[in-house]
Amino acid sequence: MTTQTQSDKDRVIVFDTTLRDGEQCPGATMTHEEKLEVAELLDDMGVDVIEAGFPIASDGDFAAVNEIARRAKNSVICGLSRASPKDIDRCAEAIKPAKRRRIHTFLSTSPVHMKWKLQKEPHEVYEMVIGQVTRARSHTDDVEWSAEDGTRTEHDFLCRCVEAAIKAGATTINIPDTVGYTVPEEYMALFKMVRERVPNSDKAIFSVHCHDDLGMAVANSLAGVAGGARQIECTVNGIGERAGNTALEEVVMAMQVRNDVMPYYTGIKPAMLTRASKLVSAVTSFPVQYNKAIVGRNAFAHESGIHQDGMLKNAQTYEIMTPETVGVKQTSLVMGKHSGRHAFEHKLEELGYQLASNQLEDAFVRFKALADKKKQIYDEDIEALVDEEIAHAHDRIKIISLTVIAGTMGPQSATLTLDIEGKHITTQSTGNGPVDAIFNAIRALVPHEAKLELYQVHAVTEGTDAQAEVSVRLSEHGRAFTAKGADPDTLVASAKAYLGALNKLTSKSSRVPGVENRIHSTDVG
Question: Do residues 35 and 249 make contact, with C-beta atoms less than 8 angstroms apart?
Answer without folding.
Answer: no
